[in-house]
Amino acid sequence: LTIDAVMTTMTVALGAAIAVPRTAGVRRTRVTAAARAFPTSRIAPRVAISSRRRDASSVRLQASDNPGQAPSLSVNDENAEEPALSPRPKPTKKPDEPVPNPPLRVAAFLAGAGFLESSYLAVEKLTGGEVTCPLTGCQTALNSGYSELFGVPLSAYGATAYFGVAALTWWGAGMAGNEEEKDAYQRARVLTFLSTAGLAGVSSYLLYLLAVPLGGAECVYCLTSAAISFSLFAIGLSGVNGRDFGKAAPAAFSVYIVTVLSLSVLLTDDSSQANINSLKLPYAAPVIEAQSTSYSRDLAAHLKSVGAKMYGAFWCSHCEDQKEFFGVGADIPYVECFPNGWERGTPVAAACSAADIQGFPTWILADGQKFEGEKTLAELAKLTRYEAPGPGALPTAPGLDASSQLDSFLSQ
């Protein structure tokens, strides 16, 4: 082998030993060695070992120019002049949204006004009084079947709701601008938004009742309450920013829908019950149109003589039909059970209570026999063993055939 070949082999081995890769992420360096193996000025060829990677360093060995000296080693980084990598910029934080400042004090005063109005209507409803109203639709709305829920005036529920919103908004207004109560203030604004959405739902359905089932009744109190509710909802909506609105809007919409659907199911127009609860009937004797005959007058006198009595009420249509059988002029032994008029809770007269009258009309004979319902003259004559002095036609009042009586009974 030649000296050049030996030097080449040594150079390769030395370069492989020196060119050890650094840890991950650190550049490799290039090592250069110069050596002269002999006292001649001959330069050994360079051997460069480079990795395939872009940032790999090469190793070089070079013979020394001075004869008799060992080869010298030098380490040079080819990429030393390259600039260091700049750090990744941190993402900038988005600025916080401004905190809304809704007029919660104004909302508290509006809710207080709604509380006073609803309380007035509730008291008048419970005491049976009549509210002062410049329009005729107030009594129509407040006395309808829609004005009560579970036997309690709807205005009483409204007064409770308005009081709660007034307390909530007044509490929230006291925390405005206080950084230490920032979270509590945010909760108060969201709760105001949700609660006023419920008020808006109630007012929406009540406006529908006024317009459709009640035929466009003009109720000043109802319209005022609706205006207060929608104003409170507008204030509640202004108190939520974009982030809070995205979280609270589905809940507010659900509250609105559930409120409307619940009222549509629970509020029904039981007009007959509502009319009975507020009805007052002064006493008025019914007007008899049929004319009496000698037979009907004699039978009436006979019933009176044997102690038979008819118990009835002036407002009872069947009692009026019974009197029509006798006609005007017949002195029927009649006992009125409501001589002072009728209204809810009025007790029957003492004579009717003592006789344990359960329905009208009721005939009670001298021996205590009781017969409920209308009786024809022939039936009464048979029950009391009355015999007419001579043949005579029984009176026939108009509209007293079986068919008309059945229609009258079913219409009650």
Structural description of this entry:
The protein is α+β, with helices and mostly antiparallel strands and 412 residues long. 46% of the residues lie in helices and 9% in strands. It is built from 13 helices and 11 strands. It has helices at 3-18, 104-127, 137-142, 154-173, 182-211, 220-238, 242-266, 271-278, 294-305, 317-326, 350-354, 377-383, 402-410, and strands spanning 30-35, 60-63, 72-76, 148-149, 152-153, 280-281, 309-312, 334-336, 342-343, 362-364, 370-372. The chain has a 4-stranded mixed sheet with strand order 8-7-10-11, with no helix packed on it. A 3-stranded mixed sheet has the order 2-1-3, with helices on one face. The chain has a two-stranded antiparallel sheet with strand order 4-5. Strand 7, helix 10 (317-326) and strand 8 (334-336) form a beta-alpha-beta unit. The chain is elongated and about 175 Å long. Residues 22-64 and 391-412 have low confidence and may be disordered.
